[in-house]
Design a protein that fits this description.
The complex is a heterotrimer. By secondary structure, chain A is an alpha+beta fold. Chain A has five helices and five strands, in the order E-E-H-E-E-E-H-H-H-H. Chain A is about 35% helix and about 15% strand. A five-stranded mixed β-sheet of chain A has the order 2-1-5-3-4, with helices on one face. In chain A, strand 3 and strand 4 form a beta hairpin. Chain A starts with a strand and ends with a helix. By secondary structure, chain B is α+β, with helices and mostly antiparallel strands. Chain B folds into three domains: about 160 residues, Aldehyde Oxidoreductase, domain 4; about 190 residues, Aldehyde oxidase/xanthine dehydrogenase, a/b hammerhead (Aldehyde Oxidoreductase, domain 3), CATH 3.90.1170.50; about 325 residues, Aldehyde oxidase/xanthine dehydrogenase, molybdopterin binding domain (Aldehyde Oxidoreductase, domain 4, 2-Layer Sandwich). In chain C, the strands form four sheets. A five-stranded antiparallel β-sheet of chain C has the order 4-5-10-6-7. In chain C, strands 11-12-13-14 form a four-stranded antiparallel β-sheet, with helices on both faces. A three-stranded parallel β-sheet of chain C has the order 1-3-2, covered by helices on one side. In chain C, helix 10 runs antiparallel to helix 11 and helix 11 runs antiparallel to helix 12. The chains are: A alpha+beta, B alpha+beta, C alpha+beta. At the A-B interface, helix 2, helix 3, helix 4 and helix 5 of A face helix 1 and helix 19 of B.
Chain lengths: ~160, ~800, ~290
């Protein structure tokens, strides 16, 4: 019986400590141990993107990470985008542009969009499509997702610069 | 039966592009999908031991070691359950149908890789998987048959006891003059079209959790399903339980698309185990299992001939259709749904009097198939539209011209086609013209070169006209022999004392926006704001019995029921208010949460006040004729099957060096009758188009020659990403249905039907210089390169320096 | 799809890591980024008794230039390499190839060394390593050794690393002025995993090709150089005829292999076009100043 390892980590701003079995996947740790079920598991082999979280400020597949690796890590999940109060700008853009249907893939898209727009604030449709190719959606056909991301980019620019493009 | 049209109330909620009520919790990560439901203490986890053989006798199943493994509570085999859970059977009373049984766990024989032979129940999924590996199964291999030819060949093993052969359904039909028409036709085009098997791949795999209450011997099954009522009835029937003590709940469901549209063995087994073990039992399908066990679809062969006059007039069609339906028919739709539907759809949106078909559903040792979005219609449409393009070329006509000659015109409607399907209303010709115009078809043709090259890529354009049979009701399902699908749905609309409304609807949602669209209907009829209406679906404990959400029936049937129930509630509101205000109920209007006398703002009261009266919590009394409460339950069944229509135009470019196809432009002119929410309609069309596109360009569920599935991960089964998908323009037309309450028609699947032929035709157009025929999917780069023929390296120069 | 049980180690030094590795005698696996390894664990295709996490080993994530060599520690994350100015200046082919390694979440965790040591037959970095003539530094319990890229990749998921060795760092020759580069691939979907990929590096002098290194992955179990094509370029200008000739020679001597998805004939068909495309791309970019 493998030893359990102690991990100390920060999840959505909250410091916590747990004992975990080595093979416990981060996705399962977040979902079952911490009851943060917004991160979804669609394939468990890193392709669909539904499990995407942020680890130490970068997006990553939680289904390809073990909780035991996360000692000292800072993790953010979709629940951190709008813990209470109004939706974040990107979430609001998804809502206004009907960029989600069943919502299962959405959390992954939101986190990747946030990272992408921070790095590429003025993307074209083509760049958006290429950047978000790591997330499979079976419902929307991506059309409205691309529109939402472009709209969010425009709004973020407006916020930053104080005037619209 | 005319549509129930409201008296010209243009300011209502129906028709508005409102953002969805569903979104907020989903965006925050607060959705509750099957695997998110808080597990009650003591929940056990099930893992199924899957057959590693496509066809074999099960000689022995040794569970001894597994049963002793850490954390294991129990292990069951097929023999353990055989006497406790009846087999699943879809006994469709149709001529030519051979019903077969499916044991929930294989007993003596397995018929596909992935069929469950045992189930391990343990404290958690990790331990259950460990233990499952310890189950030893002795197989005696039998010959596998993986396609329709093998299954119908002279040496084919008979897969199911009690059957004559492996053709589980067959039907044929001919109109009176089809042979004459073919004999005298000026031009006949013919080909055999083969589409590859597909996996549905909703991003959320299946799953269920059963919670048993010993206190009153009752059970709740949470299941990621599209048909909770049918699942409940099946549990009652197959486990011999009292249906009144059963509850089935569909939580948030992450996509269905027909893959969650069957009663699955796992649902029955998990329910049984929860009661047997007196503990909650949960099973979540992982992606590998999903690709091996969730019903697949679309492995069809269509041998089709179309007969034309010299001027391009379509005279008739002949089709021979074979459908590979896998190891077992699905329940409740049965073995005939694909083969039957395939034949019905072939005439499509065209005027065509004569038609003959033979169609068969053939069982093989592969994963069972079901009703993947649009079922056989996309392939039927692929055949018709591809042949139409070829006929056009051979007759010297433009593909658009030949469509114009044959597409149904307003003067043709109502039209009854060669198989008796009646199209009441539609905008076929209008949609075609609008789509072509928006795609600048004329401009494209004008600049198109004979060698199809521009900027080093081959360019082509293709089109398709789509018809979609939506909202099928009780009559249609009975005609098709599908007696286990009720066909109706119901809605209970209730106004609470606080003046807000709840609608319990017997369907369920997997992302189609029911909670918004149906709320719009209620709000529209009752004059309430969207925030004052809540729609609840998916729970058999609340509201009326119904059929479920599939086959593009949401807006038509659940929408119709919601509309009818809302109208009755609105009438009661008017009666109560009329009595209280001492005016005629007929002169009252509902808007902005108030009831007011038409033409004046002086005489009015709030709906909340009306609700108080209805609950006897006001000084004023109800009219004598009315009882307490403010609610109505209505079941709805459309008088006839409404047909939606669309025209698709696709533009592609192909990299001649690698064969990679890019869809550079996509236009859909779409008519689903009266639109409740245009945003939702567009979203459905976008999603359907890209899902279908993916099946044209890269998806293929593949088996090796022994029946082993090869594509059991998403690295092998290739689904279109955002980088593959085009922007899609949706143009709206609204031909209200005269046959449905509200005038609604359905929209969920039409997008798929059009994209296979439109993109295949565009590719064929781009490859005209190579003189090849497109009749196989998918069109991976290697297929495109093969179609282009073997070219020596010298021709690289030709391609780059035209 | 849960992995089978394993012990977990997170050593602070590479010497400790290889010691643990050796003690398991081939039944342990090294965990770098995990993007290739963990799917195999989740599918239970492999069931190691232990995972040795390299992420806390000192010094493995360094990027530095040493004389004429760019050194990338094996745990350098792919996204870090992608945005590193040092990498871009020293070895622009690496920078240009990074976006092809997968979408961001994969590149954020995936590592340079992990991808090379995993040696998937269509991975991009092995092609780059072979084209640039990289040197792999292997570390075992007793010694370190240098393995040239051309000798490092032995076959499907197989490298020259012994069972108790790990890949410690990779040394790439720093690009000189006049060097051109390109990376192109053929895929089943847009911006997808490669079916066949070509990485190339050319050294031009007064417009003539002085050196050419063309590496291809996806045609067989390991990366291959294309000596016939390379030979055809040396001493010539990169005009259309030369490019075409080099492309046509690219299939020479290669035994193209099919797999369950893609036939050999497709790989054979597409290689010349990829080589041609890569040469055209290389011809139009310049690193530093042309000599």
């Amino acid at each position: 019986m493998p030893q359990r390892h102690k991990i100390e980590l920060t999840v959505n701003g909250k410091k916590l400590q747990r004992l975990v079995e080595p093979r416990l996947l981060l996705s399962d740790f977040l979902r079952y141990e911490l009851r943060l079920t917004g991160t979804h598991v669609g394939c468990a082999h890193g392709v669909c993107g539904a499990c995407t979280v942020s680890i130490n400020g970068s997006t990553a597949r939680s289904c390809l990470t073990f909780a035991v690796q996360m000692d000292g890590a800072v993790i953010e999940t979709v629940e951190s985008l709008a813990p209470r109060g109004p939706l974040s700008l990107i979430q609001q853009a998804f809502h206004e542009h009907h960029a989600l249907q069943c919502g299962f893939c959405t959390p992954g898209f939101l986190l990747s969009t946030r990272e992408f727009l921070a790095r590429y604030p003025d993307p074209s449709d083509e760049t958006v499509r290429m950047a978000l190719r790591g997330h499979i959606c079976r419902c929307t056909g991506y059309v409205n997702i691309v529109r939402a991301v472009r709209a969010a980019a425009a709004k973020l620019k407006e916020e930053r610069t104080g005037h619209g493009s | 039966m005319a549509a129930d049209r409201d008296a010209g109330d243009e300011s209502g909620m129906i028709g508005r592009p409102l953002p969805r009520k569903e979104d907020d919790p989903l965006l925050r990560g607060l959705g509750v999908f099957i695997d998110d439901i808080q597990e009650p203490p003591g929940t056990l986890h099930a893992v199924f031991v899957m057959s590693t053989r496509a066809h074999a006798n099960v000689v022995a199943v040794d569970i001894a070691e597994a049963a002793q493994a850490e954390g294991v509570v129990a292990v069951y085999t097929g023999k353990d359950l055989a006497g406790r859970i009846k087999p699943i059977t879809a006994d469709i009373p149709q001529p030519g149908y051979q019903p077969v049984n499916r044991a929930v766990l294989a007993t003596d024989r397995v018929r596909f890789v992935g069929e469950a032979v045992a189930v391990v129940i343990a404290e958690n999924r990790y331990l259950a998987e460990d233990a499952a590996e310890l189950v030893r199964v002795d197989y005696e291999e039998l010959p596998s048959v993986i396609d329709v030819d093998q299954a119908t060949g002279p040496d084919a093993p008979r897969l199911h006891e009690g059957t004559r052969d492996n053709v589980l359904f067959q039907a044929s039909y001919r109109t009176a003059n089809v042979e004459t028409v073919f004999a005298s036709a000026d031009h006949i085009v013919r080909d055999t079209f083969q589409s590859h098997r597909l996996a549905v791949v909703a991003i959320e795999p299946r799953g269920c959790m059963a919670v048993y209450q010993r206190r009153n011997d009752s059970l709740t099954l949470w299941s990621s399903t599209q048909l909770p009522h049918t699942v409940r009835t099946a549990i009652a029937n197959l486990l011999d339980w009292d249906e009144t003590r059963l509850r089935v709940v569909a939580p948030d469901v992450g996509g269905g698309f027909g893959g969650k549209c069957s009663v699955y063995p796992e649902e029955l087994i998990v329910s049984f185990l929860a009661r047997e073990l007196n503990a909650p039992v949960k099973w979540i399908c992982d992606r590998r299992e999903d690709l091996m066990t969730t019903t697949q679809g679309r492995e069809y062969r269509f041998d089709v001939a179309l007969a034309f006059k010299r001027d391009g007039t379509l005279l008739g069609a002949k089709a021979k259709i074979d459908c590979n339906i896998g190891a077992y028919p699905s329940f409740p739709l049965g073995a005939s749904v694909e083969a039957g539907g395939a034949a019905i759809y072939l005439p499509g949106a065209y005027r065509m009097g004569e038609y003959a078909y033979e169609t068969r559903a053939i069982t093989t040792t592969t994963c069972p198939s079901g009703v993947y979005r649009a079922v056989a219609a996309p392939v039927a449409s692929l055949a018709t539209e591809s042949l139409m393009d070829r006929a056009a070329r051979e007759l010297g006509l433009d593909p658009a011209e030949i469509r114009r000659k044959n597409v149904l015109l307003p003067s043709d409607l109502p039209y009854t086609n060669a198989v008796g399907m009646r199209y009441s209303t539609g905008s076929f010709a209008t949609c075609l013209e609008r789509a072509l115009a928006h795609a600048d078809y004329v401009g494209f043709r004008r600049t198109q070169t004979d060698n199809r090259l521009r900027d080093g890529k081959l360019h082509g354009i293709g089109m398709a006209n789509v018809i979609e049979h939506t909202g099928q009701g009780t009559l249609r399902y009975r005609q098709r022999g599908i007696i286990y699908v009720p066909g109706f749905d119901g809605a209970q609309v209730k106004v609470e004392p606080n003046g807000r409304a709840i609608a319990w609807v017997s369907q369920c949602t997997q992302g189609q926006g029911h909670l918004t669209a149906f709320a719009q209907i209620v709000a529209h009829e009752l004059g309430l704001g969207m925030d004052d209406v809540t729609v609840i679906e998916g729970d058999t404990a609340f509201g009326p019995y119904g059929t479920g959400t599939f086959a593009s029936r949401g807006a038509v049937i659940a929408g119709g029921a919601t509309l009818r129930a809302s109208t009755r509630v609105a009438d009661k509101i008017r009666r109560i208010a009329g009595h209280a205000l001492n005016v005629s109920a007929g002169d009252l209007k509902l808007a902005d949460g108030r009831v007011y006398l038409s033409g004046t703002s002086e005489v009015s009261m709030s709906i909340r006040e009306v609700a108080a009266i209805a609950h006897s919590m006001d000084a004023r009394a109800l009219p004598e004729s009315d009882s307490f409460g403010l609610e109505a339950t209505e079941y709805y069944d459309p008088a006839a099957t409404p047909t939606s229509n669309a025209a698709h135009v696709a533009q592609v470019s192909i990299d001649p060096a690698t064969g990679l196809v890019t869809v550079v432009n996509y236009v859909v002119a779409h008519d689903c009758g009266r639109v409740i929410n245009p945003l939702i309609v567009e979203g459905q069309v976008h999603g359907a188009v890209v899902q279908g596109l993916s099946s044209v360009l890269s998806e293929a569920m593949r088996y090796d020659e022994t029946g082993q599935p090869i594509t059991v991960s998403l690295m092998d089964y290739l689904i279109a990403t955002a980088a593959d998908a085009p922007d899609i323009t949706v143009l709206h037309e609204e031909s209200w249905s005269p046959d449905t309450a509200g005038g609604f028609k359905g929209v969920g699947e039409g997008g798929v039907i059009g994209v296979l032929p439109a993109v295949a035709n565009a590719i064929a157009d781009a490859l005209v210089p190579f003189g090849c025929k497109i009749n196989r999917l998918p069109l991976l780069p290697q297929a495109i390169v093969a179609l282009m023929g073997s070219r020596s390296a010298g021709s690289l120069e030709d391609i780059h320096n035209p | 799809m849960k992995p089978s049980r394993f012990e977990y180690f997170s050593p602070a030094s590479t010497s400790e890591a290889v010691e643990i590795l050796a003690s398991y005698q081939g039944r342990a696996r090294l965990l770098a980024g995990g993007q290739s390894l963990v799917p195999l664990l989740n599918f239970r295709i492999i069931t190691p008794e232990a995972l040795i996490d390299l992420s806390r080993c000192r010094g493995l994530d360094e990027i530095r230039s040493e004389g004429s060599v760019l050194v990338l520690g094996s745990m350098v994350r792919q996204s870090t390499a992608e945005t590193s100015e040092i990498v871009r200046t020293c070895c622009p082919l690496i920078t240009a190839t990074m976006p092809f390694l997968g979408p961001s979440p994969i590149r954020n965790r995936g590592t340079i060394g992990g991808s090379l040591a995993h040696a998937d037959r269509v991975a991009e970095l092995p092609a780059v390593a072979v084209a640039l003539g990289a040197i792999m530094i292997a570390e075992g319990p007793k010694r370190r050794r240098e393995i040239p890229a051309r000798e490092f990749f032995l076959g499907d998921l197989t490298t020259a690393l012994a069972s108790e060795e790990m890949l410690r760092e990779v040394r790439f020759p720093i690009s000189s002025d006049g060097e051109r580069f390109a990376f192109v691939e053929a895929t089943n979907r847009h911006h997808d995993l490669a079916l066949v990929a070509v990485a190339l590096k050319l050294v031009l002098n007064a417009g003539r090709c002085e050196q050419a290194a063309i590496a291809v992955v996806g045609v067989g179990p390991k990366p291959l150089r294309l000596p016939a094509s390379e030979g055809c370029l040396v001493g010539k200008r990169l005009d259309a005829a030369t490019v075409l000739a080099a492309a046509q020679l690219s299939t020479e001597g290669i035994e193209f292999e099919s797999d369950v998805h893609t036939p050999a004939s497709y790989r054979r068909h597409v290689l010349p076009s990829l080589v041609e495309r890569a040469l055209r791309q290389a011809a139009s970019n310049a690193h530093g100043n042309d000599r």
